[in-house]
Protein: Glycosyltransferase family 61 protein
Amino acid sequence: MKKLYFIADTKRGGDLGNYWHYMLGYFLPIVTYLRKNKEIISSKELVFDSCNPLTDAILMEYLDELKVRYSFEKLTEKGIEVPRADWKSVRGKIRRQLLKLELALRGEHASIFTYHKFRVKADKILIPRWDRYLDEYGSFSSPVKKDLKGTILHLKLWAKSDQSREEIIVIERSRPPSILKSTEGKEARWLPNYGTERRQLKNGEEINDFLKSQGYNARRFFPGDESLKLQIDVFSKAKVLIGIRGAELLNMIWMLPEAKVIMQESADFKNEAIQIKLANAFDLELKIIPHDGQISPSLNPEHILTYLING
Structure:
């Protein structure tokens, strides 16, 4: 049986072992390709670029239910050092300024948006990095928006359950997994300083209990400990999402338009929150709480209540 290789694009910055970059820059484009090319993939063995044990498991969960033949291999290097060096170089800065000028002049006809396509060469498919549009320009091109909308709806239907869910979700970052200590974990992309080891919302339990005492249907949720299907199902039914700034807030893409997201900032970040651009792209209402110099701050429950009542 012939093999079809799905190659990660590691030359555009953003580590694909990170949930945010992985979902927008690898998983969602792959699902888009698979659902549009059912006849092609039915007769081939699919070989996917291994990103890390945690993110590979996300794709495995979907593939298992798709009932296709697949395997994972390390097809590319980590690929994060070169983009970082290029980002700081004079050449890189000039190129970005020229791209911004081109974007301002040509809009969605700018050359950067040609990369939404799947570049195919023989049995190899280079996966487009849709995360880069959002990171650098704050928008998706029309073809990407259309593909994302269709794929997100497809996954929401795939994950849908008949069980009712909580209206307010308090995101809790997961503890570092034991696989970090293994050889596989040490060699994988982006696993060091995972979850609570890097930052966390210190009083998630307090926030959850307070909201419940005020009559709200709230729940603490640890996305990193749950299946992809459960994550999609939980977040697609949530009206309010509360959490500290981090990759797991990408789960706002499953929420309905005009849902609310309350994000606690962290001193761990020095740049503008990419969540602002994501919220704009998906028509969500985002409220950002300052960090006051703390990496893992607490969020005042009374402030949350004021926002829920007054907006």
Remarks:
- The CA atoms of residues 35 and 154 lie 9 Å apart.
- The longest strand covers residues 3-7.
